[in-house]
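Entry 12.
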Amino acid sequence: MKKPKMPAAKAVPETPGESSTALSKSVGKGDATYELPWVEKYRPKFLDDVVGNTETIERLKIIARDGNMPHVIISGMPGIGKTTSVLCLARQLLGGDEKLYKEAVLELNASDERGIDVVRQRIKGFAQKKVNLPLGRHKLVILDEADSMTSGAQQALRRTMEIYSNTTRFAFACNQSNKIIEPLQSRCAILRYAKLTDAQVVKRLLQIIAEEKVEYSDDGLAALVFSAEGDMRQAINNLQSTWAGFGFVSGDNVFKVVDSPHPIKVQAMLKACYEGNVDAALDSLRELWDLGYSSHDIISTMFRVTKTIPTLSESAKLDFIKEIGFTHMKILEGVQTLLQLSGCVVRLCKLNMDPKKFQTK
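Predicted 3D structure (tokens):
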């Protein structure tokens, strides 16, 4: 008598690079929670929530309220809310209807293919598509990081923008507006975003800290602001990384995550330079170099710290910044040696030393 055949077990597809044991464990859990990056979790949904650049945001609010949006180019540093404000504008123009938003908004960024073919086919096809929109509203094409588009692709957009301007408007977000060709610039209203102030960054970080119940110290908050340099995205990412890695946001922990020279050490070196103490200044520089920091990291931190030292007079700061600037330029040209940095430190020491010491007898 033949034994009845057992039904074959369904094979569980394995993810490349993941063992079947690990996969079965993750499948077995069922209730595993995956946390969003805080940058996405706390990304503003409405223009009222966007931090900084108040005047420009007010102009966008008027457009969102009245409709009839012009073609726009938004330029500025990374992490100051360019893409976020365009997405908020699109959402508010369409009345917050997610289904309509998916139909009437085409978003392309640097990770998408944006050559001439895409402009001719995908963007033109979207512009020709019929969508039922409220009165005075238009379809929107958002081209993020538009300064990385090829010149040919930008040229191909010129006629498309004109032909379909009755139904479709374009919004470009870029770091440098001069990388956008002149014919496109002349068709658009250009909005320039300024760097966020420290107070604006701190206010937003404190909101996130309160929501996530993060433990922090004041020097940790100051370190986040110092390392971000007005870039909100970087400040929030550094906050999340420090909290996840150490469970407490202190100054030392932040600089371990950011992996840049500690400003206190750099400040001690610059004070030694101001006092004309060459040996102490060179010892501090050697200590930073031995910790593995690149010459670019050290010179950038020297520049940022010089601006914030309260004991330096304005003229001394200008003299220091001039010397640091020349050295920075040489480092960017490729001369990234300890000797180059040592020369800079010694020249800084010489600024405040007695000129008689350098006279030949």
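Annotation: Residues 314-332 form the longest helix (19 residues). Residues 1-32 have pLDDT under 50 and may be disordered.
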